[in-house]
Amino acid sequence: MDRRIWYSLYDKVFNLGNLHSAFKQVKKNKGAPGVDKVTIQRYEMELESNLEALQLKLKEKRYRPKPVRRKYIQKDDGKMRPLGIPTVEDRVVQAAVRNIIEPIFEEEFLPSSYGFRPGISAHMALDQVTKYLQKGYAHVVDADLQSYFDTIPHDKLLARLRMRIKDGSVLGLI
């Protein structure tokens, strides 16, 4: 396993090619507008100028995320789940950062980890469970942490990130 430490990643985040790729990912995921009410379609109408302006803000370290729009959606059990909706621009920055840091950490996951990983789906997890059942295994363990993303210990998460990433500008975006 490669345990390199990364010192200089920030310029890769605001690389125009990476920002374009990040926008394509945001567009593919669809999603509602954030607090600024800018839709993906409206952002795309002036994509080049929007991405160039974003690139400049990132380069000059003037980028600041906007507040997240809060919406509540009903779950199957009737309870309401809070949903945070960032602006399109903030989602582009998030995707741009993810594009750069995800390969650094992806190799550390066990093959049995199926949640929120590139190229891995819930269907793949179900396929693996089926194979285990066919081999005679009798127990399935499913773990889902309630409201985990609302309760992530950010200090511990950042401490883990700092073990591999030393670029303070990237850590500041995170």
Can you describe what's shown?
The chain has nine helices and two strands, in the order H-H-H-H-E-E-H-H-H-H-H. It has 174 residues and is mainly alpha-helical. The protein has a two-stranded antiparallel sheet with strand order 1-2. The chain is globular. 17% of the residues are buried.
Key traits:
mainly alpha, two-stranded antiparallel ribbon, globular, 174 residues, single chain, 9 helices, 2 strands
How would you sum up this structure in a few lines?
This protein is mostly helical and 174 residues long.
Please write out the topology.
Blueprint: H1 10-13, H2 16-29, H3 40-45, H4 47-59, E1 69-74, E2 80-85, H5 88-106, H6 122-134, H7 148-151, H8 154-164, H9 168-173
Low-confidence stretches: none
Which of globular, elongated, flat, extended, rod-shaped describes the shape? globular
What proportion of the residues form beta strands (DSSP E)? Answer: 5-15%
The topology string of helices and strands comes to HHHHEEHHHHH
Helix content: 40-55%
